Amino acid sequence: MRITCPNCGQRDLREFTYMGHAVALNRPAADADLAQWDDYLHNRDNPAGPTDELWYHGAGCTAWLKVRRDTVTHVISDAWLVMPPSKGVK
Amino acid sequence: MTDQAMTLPETSPAAGLLPQSMGRMTLTEWAQMPITWVGLLSTDVAAASADLQAQIGAALPAPGQSLPCTGGHILWAGMGQALVMGTALSSVAGASVVDQSDAWCALRLSGPDAPAIMARLCPLDLGFDQFEEGAVARSLIGHMNGIIWRDGADSLTVMVYRSFAQTLVHELTHAMRAYAARLALA
Amino acid sequence: MMRIRDIGPAVSFTWDGKRLQGQVGDTLASALLANGQRVVARSFKYHRPRGIFTVGSAEPNALVTIGSGAAQDPNIRATVQEIYPGLEARSQNRWPSLGFDILAINDLASPFLSAGFYYKTFMWPRSFWEKLYEPFIRRAAGIGALSGQHNADHYEKAFAFCDLLVIGSGPAGLAAALEGARAGARVILAEDDARMGGRLICDNALLNDAAAGDWVDAALAELAAAPNVTLMPRTAVTGAYDGGTFGAIERVGLHLPHQPELPRETFWRISARRAILATGAIERPIAFANNDRPGVMMASALRSYLHRYGVAAGQQVVIFTNNDDAYASARDLEGAGVQVTLVDARADAVAPAGFAGRFIAGAQVCDTRGRMGLRAVQLRHGDGRTEWTRADCLGLSGGWNPSLHLACHMNGKPQWDEGLSAFLPVPGMVPGLDYAGAANGQYDTAACLAAGQTRARAALGDLGLSLPAAADLPKTPQAAARPMLPLWQVPGKSRAWLDFQNDVTTKDVALAARENYTSVEHMKRYTTQGMAPDQGKNSNVNALAVLADVTGRSIAQTGITTYRPPFVPVSLAALGAGAQGAGFAPQRFTTSDAASRAMGAPMIEAGLWYRPSYFPQAGETHWRQSCDREVGYVRNAVGIADVSTLGKIDIQGPDAGAFLDFVYTNMFSTLPVGRVRYGLMLREDGHVMDDGTTARLGPDHYLMTTTTAAAAQVMKHLDFVRQAHCAQMQVAFTSVTEEWAQFAIAGPKARGLLQQLTGQALDGADWPFMACGPIALGDVQGRLFRISFSGEMGFELAVPARFGAALFDRLCDMARDLGGGPYGMEALNVLRIEKGFITHAEIHGRVTGFDIGMQGMLSRKKDFIGKAAASRPGLLEDGRELLVGLRATNGSLIAGARLFTQGSDAVRTADQGYITSVAYSPTLDASIGLGFLRNGRARMGEVIRVKDHLRGVDILAEVCNPVFFDPEGGRARD
After folding, report:
1. A2-83, what's its fold?
2. Could you give the ipTM of this predicted complex?
3. Most exposed of C371, C440, C663, C964 (fewest Cβ within 10 Å)?
4. DSSP of C384-435, one letter per residue?
């Protein structure tokens, strides 16, 4: 499997580590009720098809990426930086 | 009794291990030089780029690039990061500046077989027709995170953290030896 | 069998200890045939004598052991092993010898050893299994054997990249590679064989009215000269994976006498933007009674041995075929002076022009004789009449199976083509992989050449390359082939073999069906057909055809099992290249490592780092003596320890304080400049991730420390928090673990040592407990932190790493002058346990701040990672296991022991907790430890039971304050 990192280009999977579903980006407010936090921490959809997940390019540029992957075909169709890219650098 | 006139001898990361030559290839250690890590504080690069231009004659490189600058070169080194090789900086506008002169083991692999040697260790396409002069990449060397920089027509500089020096020398010389043996067959 | 044409200079090798002559260019198989060796192996289950069956990679019978000593290599196909001077080869699976093998008695017991016998035997009595049956089966099972010794040979793994990977170098592959070369694409042409050319160098074929080899040579010369082409002979592509990745195993040194520095094999990961499967087809046999005798071979192999190796595999050859392709073998052998009988199962067959041997149409071979080598075959004519005819070699051809395994590796199923009587690959099974030639059911040379060219041009066009005019393809003679007659098995009473390697016969498949294992997946596992090292290359299609027949289904309905990588056996040495022993992981060494080892310190692993365990002195015979002494250094004088391995993260920016407030449970934006504070870091689920101290070096400048083994994990976490949750903050951080060599200087005399070293007073007013700041050692700019992990007056001194080795030596000398010296991890651990300081032994991933008594550090005023989840009632309830100290009353504590109320049974349901860290404390002369005990904070003074069921420890201990020594903490402060 290869992931196209927006900074580094297409890279071998061994440069990345996986965290989990991209819902981890949507952190509830500190005072949100515990049911919301339970969902955020523990409950996930499990589609047979495209899903958005988080990968860390730890052996590369150290960017966190949101990656769209098809759980049936393993095809990776897209990858975005979690943090908006630097302005002014190509 | 105070010891104010004390001097502490220095040890380089790969002390005693290099240089080594095998086949058409040579592996040497860079002489110690100032290395400054520059990290953008935000996604706005303008202030940092302008200040670097003023201080060392080069702006922040784009991902995968290096630029010549005062004292040596400035290398892209990751998300919003650069390494200034050869000059110590104390501050850069809009950026964090950290001395990393002692953090790195920087080795130069010279000779026409450099891409073939690295093919044993690195999952990148480092062929000289693909990885141009001045190109920089962060990737794996064996199981070590590192920086690969094409710093010459037929040389690659490989940088890992200092404590990995022995492992890096071992991996590179092992690959050099095996490749030289393969070439000797032809 | 004999050599009828020399192919190269003579080469000596040994076979079962006997010295034989081969020629340069021989495989072991061709050399054995040239030397008249008919029996080369004993079959897996029945130990039947077997001979060489094929000429290439799919060989099922001739598995041999190459070499001796540590690097002895079992189960090597003799048809792939090239001979070299001094090659040592031995037959396998026979005792005492190939000629007389005692386990051939299995053949007589065959009615009891049919498919699934092991589900029905060796069951009773139960006690016999472990003592008798299993050891016997284990000794009898398997074919070849490893030496069992460490193999010091070199193997390699490597990466390669290309635009076009061409798999196979027959006519289709060469045509494809030439297109890629001329288009300027980066081409890799991989060929399993040592020589490129495929069937063109094995058949007596003509291209452009000249020997096909001429065109092959010219094509290879052009490819070798092209700088954008990499030729990889002796390289078998083993697997197709996601994203255009292919695995391949290259035999680098296996065809040469041993050279110490040359890798024996290289395992490649090839990243190809497009690929062409030009792997050809594998001829399939026909099943009939006793079709497995030495001398029974594949018809196409007979002509390969003749043309490529100059060896005639027999003098009286019968060819049994259902198709036209085998006619070439008949003609070519006859042309070499061999007596040939050509038997065609098709009733309407006609003898080939110019064939002078005996030709029989509409007949079948139905039995053979000759246990140690074929002597005769039995023919059944169309009218039912049978006859025996003398033969020393029988060439079979039941048709051809496209070699499409790689195309199926991503779970695609091939499609049965009724007209061709073969499975064909389906487009798109592996994205980016196209098919050309016999691998795609195109069996004539002209079609192969054209397809290789067309499919390559299509792939290159897909990549956006502009293509020059297509190459001129050589002319091939036209031959009209008549349809084949599907023929899978010939009726007969005796066993008819399908899978030669696992000894599976047509009776086994029929038995499986009778016992209701009618699915092809069940038949495979029940009979073990297709599960041997050859993965059923010669038997899969035949076996499922027999199954289809027996279950009244079509072949298409019966289906085929799944092909998985690797296509050929791959040695674990190649897959694990570079990873044996210390090579398994990178090694990280501190600047004091060499000095520590020179002092005789045994080193322990902490993550990838090596740290000294203790520093033995003359006269000490047990590690406890050293450890106790070193603890004494720190409590009474001054000790030196290298603490460089702890993660150090430099964090700067206007929002650095706010960022730390978010990742730690307690406040850091309020930390004064020049001070250090202990911090607790949680995971988002409220459990402790790490702890450490963070120093404030300037208004916008902090330095965080992490546990040695958690440094990478914490960095990854900080990167996530910054990028996902704090993208608007102005902050940047980087690791400086390696920039600084850092040493703990701990003990009542620590300040004195540092005064001497730095020339500074370092008094309590300027340097209070938990102060930090820059400090000069001569010209060297260092940093000093007044922190203590030992509970004594202590400092940590950091210098740029280039000075680390020299500073460590200097510090140890100065400490010795003060009655102290270096201390290692054992002593460090005793000291911190005496003070109740926790490590990841306690914060092991399942404890919360509340559990370790640090609930007061969870700020109520701000949000932080883990805050909400940590407030879950279940993490705060009564009955949780809480951190306590333990002091043994009648023995020694052991980490991992479970805790029970005194007097209760030591059973799981009464479990009250466990011990995480233990030490003998010379300071207190007691066995002490830390652990977690239900409601522990309310049970101070209680004597509880400590039991380790595994190691037989059962003692009592008193529950106490985890800070055993100096609970007020005065010794570390002024």
Report:
1. Folate-binding fold (3.30.2270)
2. 0.97
3. C371
4. S-EEEEE-SEEEEE--EEE--GGGGTTS---EEETTTTEEE--TTSSTTEEE
